[in-house]
Amino acid sequence: MSEPANRRHTAWHLLLTGVLGLPLITPLLRWSSVPCTHDGHLHYHRVAAIRHAWENGLFFSRWLPDLAFGYGYPFFLYREPFPLYLTHFMHLAGLPLPAATNLFYAATILLAGAFTYLWVRDIFGAPAGIVAAVAYMAAPYQLVDALVRGNQVESLALALFPLLLWAGRRFLISGAARWFFVGCLGLAALGLSHNISLLLFTPALALYLLALVWVHRLPWRRGLGRVALLMGIGLGLTAFYTGPAVLEMDEVTLSLSTTTRNNDFRYNFASLAEIFSAVSPEDPTLINPPLPFRLGWTQTALGLLGLLSIAWLRRREQRAHILLMAGATVIFLAFALPFSRPLWEALPLIEFVQFPWRFVGRAALPLAMLAAVPVALLTQLSRSERAARERLLLTAGTALPIALLMLEAFPLLYPTYCPEAPFPDIVDVHRYERETGLVGVDPEGSYFPTTVRRRPQGSPLEADYVAGRPPQRFDEDALPDGASVLEASYGPNRARIEVESPAAFQARYLTF
Fold this sequence. Notes:
Layout: H1 3-25, E1 33-35, H2 40-55, H3 75-78, H4 82-92, H5 97-124, H6 126-137, H7 140-149, H8 152-174, H9 177-191, H10 195-215, H11 220-236, H12 239-247, H13 256-259, H14 272-275, H15 297-308, H16 316-336, H17 341-346, H18 358-384, H19 388-409, E2 417-419, H20 426-436, H21 462-467, E3 484-491, E4 494-500
Helix pairs in contact: 1-5, 1-6, 2-4, 2-20, 4-5, 5-6, 5-8, 6-18, 6-19, 8-9, 8-10, 8-11, 9-11, 10-11, 10-16, 15-18, 15-19, 16-18, 18-19
């Protein structure tokens, strides 16, 4: 097939993947309300704080000076800016913040499907790629992340995983510069999207690429060089963020993010019964219903069929991928189960993952590829037997899994909704901090500088924000008799104060 014809086929298949994903994003097609999620309010008010800083000339800062009632909070020194800034840009372009938030989640689900199609298509063919895309978009973890947990940063990370596997494989095999750039930028985007996913996925990506060096019988020096170059440059692009985050961990109360009961991994393992449970009926009598982290019965059944298909597939790379994906699924699930606790207690930094059940979501991608393998087997049969009966079998064998995947996903598509103000300002953020007690718009207050002895419940700076003027951080009440301020100039994250005083005194500047 010629290159233009191949591109046309790819475009049509990506369009079909998007159409199949439309039912899954229907809960997000709202303008003024969002699904009521665990963390949605946090991200909503963080974006509002970003917009306030942006409109005052502070286009990016790790220190958000207007959080914590104006005392400031080093949020982006330790947490990921990319997903929130993507939502911010849509909001800045004129979309109400609820609509921008919904559009972000819808885009991550559709992109997850598109990138999964491209990756699986290269190995098992286009029909299998479409089935794998639907299996990943309809994965319970994917939908729960967007519609129940409201985890913007992880939702984008889930979409970037298949992109990195696709681009990494192509660069490893061809050495083409374009795939190198796609892979590096994808890895950098992952690092700036979800540092926990970067911690978990980077070793998996490296092992996958090293396995492909053997599968394709590449010279080891060339293969190792390409893997090292991709990983080194990709991770190096985020060193300005990941470096300080690691080096300055002791400067804030970061231990709160791992030692409170909600975030301590010891209390957050999944069980096999939970992972392989059926869709649970809605119980309106429960105030706080349990949140099972499932793989999905359809994905699991198709994945088992895909594993069995290895007996009939003969291509070396296809057989290798079946074994690799089966192994990855088992390993990921093992880390979600309680018997892996000794590993959790021994491995460095893994405690910051907080929730072992996150690994159920990581298992969704390799399982999606396995779920598509039976369709690849039917594709090969239809090519060898060109009778109309075989083509009909391929069509039915592709449509039936898609229908079953969608059917199992439908019960997750009915969230409750929360109306939100379309254009919140920094005063709304401070009101949220006061009403919820989540100062810094952070559940645990994990990023307060260690020098902060008492968390504020308000500040005198709020009057400045209400009046629409820059916060006057120099405390003139601390001046001695006879002293005066000759000049005061305030800007985002800066100030110039000129004081005349007849005596020495201790000045107070209202920021952490």
